[in-house]
UniProtKB/TrEMBL annotation:
The keyword Lyase applies. It comes from Shewanella submarina. This is Diaminopimelate decarboxylase. Its EC number is 4.1.1.20. Pathway: Amino-acid biosynthesis; L-lysine biosynthesis via DAP pathway; L-lysine from DL-2,6-diaminopimelate: step 1/1.
Amino acid sequence: MDHFLYKDDVLCAEDCQIADIAAQYGTPLYLYSRATLERHWHAFDKAVGSVPHMICYAVKANSNLAVLNVLARLGSGFDIVSGGELARVLEAGGDPAKVVFSGVGKTRDEMAQALRAGIHCFNVESAAELETLNEVAGELDMQAPISLRINPDVDAGTHPYISTGLKENKFGIAMEEAEGLFLRAHALPHLKVKGVDCHIGSQLTELNPFLDAVDRLLALIDTLAEQGVVIEHFDVGGGLGVTYDEETPPHPDDYAKALLTKFEGRQLTLIFEPGRAIAANAGLFVTQVLYLKENSDKNFAIVDGAMNDLIRPSLYSAWQKIIPVSPRAGETRAFDIVGPVCETGDFLGKNRQLNVQAGDLLAVRSAGAYGFTMASNYNSRPRVAEVMVDGDKHYLVREREKLVQLWQGEHLLP
Ligand code: LLP
């Protein structure tokens, strides 16, 4: 459930009217609901109950400082994939001791930055990374806490671009190599083995792939125990899907319950890395219709938002619901909702039944995750404003970029 509802036929974000927010800050804009973010985070946290655990929100989903800060205040941990994300977490008041660092291409500088910050764990993804981390920690006279990300070779049944747990994917360490690499890590002087992790893909709507992955990694943990390698935590990654359209992903409660049965009787701390499940439905992308245009067999609503602002529809053929901020009575027509960018692939939605006129506001739902974080300046379009509502108040949490910022840092030849 989220807090974007029609009240008296006008779309509201919590207790604020979205039309007022758009009038104040302009469009396009991203709009987040604090109550929804908190609700989704608590849903995870409560679902795991008294079992020792950390909810490490995946920063890549939405890294706005205000979003991170709202979650940090709840006691959230964070899953990061770059030095930039670590810096954001610290800037937002996040606790480095609750940070896990994922990603296949950590640089030596990023490793040193994270070691100095005192993060909870590095999720190591290859033998080469393991050796490098040992060296970097040695140079700093430190021990790096590590987990190995195992690729359990399960099919997450999701879009190929966001499926990560198959052998053919670049992520993680193959099952066959896992034991040998754990023994190597155990023997290296500047590493401390803490855990095991996996992340099999994103927008999963079934439980079974998660459960299969857990089974495979638990078997590995047992083998390691026989060799004297003690695993303290199990990081199940992120990936729980959300409802964009008709999908019926498991509720965090059912997801956690199913997983917990696997861990009964084990002394493992659990780590979760949800991104989408917390942020997606806590955000909208609000855009204004500039022009209506018809050709022989299509109606286009040309809006001021575009693929550079919200790339999911273009990149993954993702379907996100598009609704009017102030619905009009009367007949609807099928519209393609397209932006001003010079690409045929620049659309937010196709074939949507709407009754719209130039000047109307539309809201693209489920845009709180992988929306702004994937935005670019393509076509020299300034990145849009981000606003967060909190009850009957709203706050500008990122200013709309100014034109001069477009070429900041660029230089002419002498
Ligand atoms: N942990 C790791 C190691 C990840 O790679 C990811 C996402 C997550 C956690 C969070 O997954 P989530 O709970 O959000 O599914 N841009 C794509 C999604 C890419 C996901 C990448 N990894 C999209 O817009 O659908």
